Amino acid sequence: MKKLIIALAAAVAAVGIYLIVRSGGPQKAVKTNTPPAIGIRVVAAENFYGDIARQLAGGAATVKSLISNPNIDPHEYESTVQDGIAVAKADIVIENGLAYDTWMDKLLSASPNPDRIVITAGKIAPEPLPGNPHVWYGIENIEAVSRAIASALEKKDPAGGEAFRGNLARFNGSLAPIRAKIDEIRSRYAGTPVGLTETVYLYQTRSMGLRVLTPLAFERAIAEGNEPAAADVAAANDQIVRKAIRILIYNRQTVTPITANLLAAAKARGIPEVPVTETMPAGKTYQSWMIGELNAIEKALAAASGH
Predict the structure, then answer these.
(1) Which of 6, 115, 199, 213 has the most crowded CB, counting CB atoms within 10 A?
(2) Which tens digit of pLDDT belongs to each residue from 59-93?
(3) Is the sign of the CA dihedral 268, 270, 271, 273 positive or negative?
(4) Are residues 134 and 206 in the same domain?
(5) Rounded to whole angstroms, what are the CA distances from 254 to 34, 71, 258, 266?
(6) Where are any strands of DSSP class E within the chain?
(7) Distance between CA 261 and CA 252 in Å, rounded?
(8) Domain co-membership, 213 together with 238
(9) What is the extent of the structural domain holding 156?
(10) How many domains is the chain built from?
C-alpha cells in the first residue's frame, strides 16, 4: 500500500511539472504541455505490415515496424531490447509466421499478455505457396491480412469501427491498379521463361503467368541461406549462358557470391536484371512498392522481347 501511495503521489506531481525558464530576468514557471495520446499500440515485425496497419488505423494508432531497412536480410535479423519493450507494450502485434520471423515468437513468449492480439499472416493467408513464407506478395493474401488488422483495431477501439471499415474499403480499392498491372503483364507475356535467384517473387511470377526455369531447390537454398547443390548451380548458370531465360529477377537483400556470379553472367549476355526486395524500401507504401516492381518487370520483359 505504501508503494502504491508513493507511485500515485509521483504521478500527480508529474502532471504539474513546471519548467524553470531563465530569460535574462526573473525566473518564470512555465507549465509543460500534456503529451498527445498514444492510441492503439501496434508493432509489426516487417514494415510492409506496419504500413498497412498505419493506413487502416488512420491516426488512431502508434505503429512501430521492427524491420524497416531494405538492406537487412529478415532471415538473419536479431531483435533488440527495444524491440522486446515495444512488443511487451503492444496492443496488437503483426508477424509473418511460417518460420520467417521466429525472433518475433521469442519476443512474444518473453512477455505473455492475454489482452494482446497477435496476427500471423501465414496462418490466415488463403493462397500460400508450399514452403514459401513470402505471403505478402500475394494480393489475395494481403487482403486477408488487412481484414484481420482492421478487425483487431476495431476490437481495441470499438468507437472507431466505422472509420476502420472505411479505411479497409479504401485500402482494398487501392489494390486494383496492382491487379490490373498483373493482368496486363500476363496478357502480354504469359509463358515467358524467366530466372529467379530465390523464392521471394514466386507469388508474382505465378500470378503473371511467367515460366520460372531456375530449379526450385536452388531458389529455396538461397532464400534459406544455404548452399545450393552443385547441379542446381550449374543448371541456373547454364540457363543464362544459353540465354534460355529472358530476364533474371533477383532479391537484392540476399545477394551471395553464387547469385552475384549469375547477375554478372546475365549482364554479360544482355539479359535484363530486375531487383526486388523482401522489405519495403523507404518512402514507399505497400501499394507503390508493389506497382513499382511490377513496372520494372514489365519494362524488362518489353526490352527482352523487343516490344
Answers:
(1) 199
(2) 999 999 999 887 777 777 888 999 999 999 999 99
(3) positive
(4) no
(5) 45, 9, 10, 17
(6) 18-21, 28-31, 40-46, 61-67, 92-95, 117-120, 193-196, 211-212, 247-251, 273-276
(7) 13
(8) yes
(9) 40-174
(10) 2
- Asked if residue 145 belongs to a domain, the reply is yes
Residues 194 and 86 grouped into a single domain:
no
Cβ-count burial of 110 within 10 angstroms (0-12 exposed, 13-18 middle, 19+ buried)? exposed
Torsion of CA 244, 189, 130, 179, to 10 degrees: 150
Integer Cα distance of 159 and 179 in angstroms: 33
Per-residue confidence (pLDDT) for residue 74, from 0 to 100:
75
**What's the pLDDT score for residue 6?**
37
Give per-residue pLDDT as tens, 144-196: 999 999 999 999 999 999 999 999 999 999 999 999 999 999 999 999 999 99
Answer whether residue 235 is part of any domain.
Answer: yes
Select from 122, 154, 174 the last residue of a domain: 174
- Picking from 142, 174, 206, the residue at the C-terminal end of a domain is 174
Question: Is 32 inside any structural domain?
Answer: no
What residue has cell string 518489353? 302
Q: What is the pLDDT of the chain when averaged over all its residues?
A: 89
The CATH number of whichever domain residue 188 belongs to comes to 3.40.50.1980
Please report the pLDDT score of residue 14 as a whole number: 38
At residue 157, the pLDDT reads: 97
165 & 55 share domain? yes
Per-residue pLDDT band for 307 (boundaries 50, 70, 90) equals: low
